[in-house]
């Protein structure tokens, strides 16, 4: 049961790190003047969102499993 809690903490930390970085990418996107920079930041935001969504699902599932 302790390894479930450990995995839950790891996935929650990963999820929240992505959640805290995603708005920063949006700020950089809003301040960018070059189209190539905007395209790169849009790709970064999309890839980060695709990365943190499974982390959220696993964190929630492990949290319910702990209950």
Condensed summary:
The protein is mainly α and 67 residues long. The protein has helices at 2-31, 35-66. Helix content is 93%, strand content 0%.
Tags for this entry?
67 residues, single chain, 2 helices, mainly alpha, 0% strand
Helix content: over 70%
What would you call the shape? rod-shaped
> What percent strand?
under 5%
Low-confidence stretches: none
Radius of gyration: 15 Å
Q: How many β-strand runs?
A: 0
Can you summarize the main beta sheet? none
Question: What is the end-to-end distance?
Answer: 11 Å
The number of helical runs is 2
Mean pLDDT rating: 95
User: Structural class of the secondary elements?
Assistant: mainly alpha
- SSE arrangement, N to C: HH
Describe the model:
There is one protein chain. The chain has 67 residues and is mainly alpha-helical. It is 93% helix and 0% strand. It contains 2 helices and no strands. The longest helix is centred in the last third of the chain and has 32 residues, at 35-66. It is rod-shaped and about 50 Å long. The model has no long low-confidence stretch (mean pLDDT 95).
Detail the topology: elements first, then pairings.
Blueprint: H1 2-31, H2 35-66
């Amino acid at each position: 049961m302790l390894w479930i809690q450990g995995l839950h903490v790891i996935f929650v930390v990963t999820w929240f790190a992505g959640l805290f970085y995603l708005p920063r990418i949006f700020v950089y996107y809003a301040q960018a003047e070059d189209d190539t920079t905007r395209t790169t930041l849009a790709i970064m935001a999309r890839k980060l969102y695709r990365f943190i969504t499974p982390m959220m699902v696993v964190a929630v599932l492990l949290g319910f499993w702990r209950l």
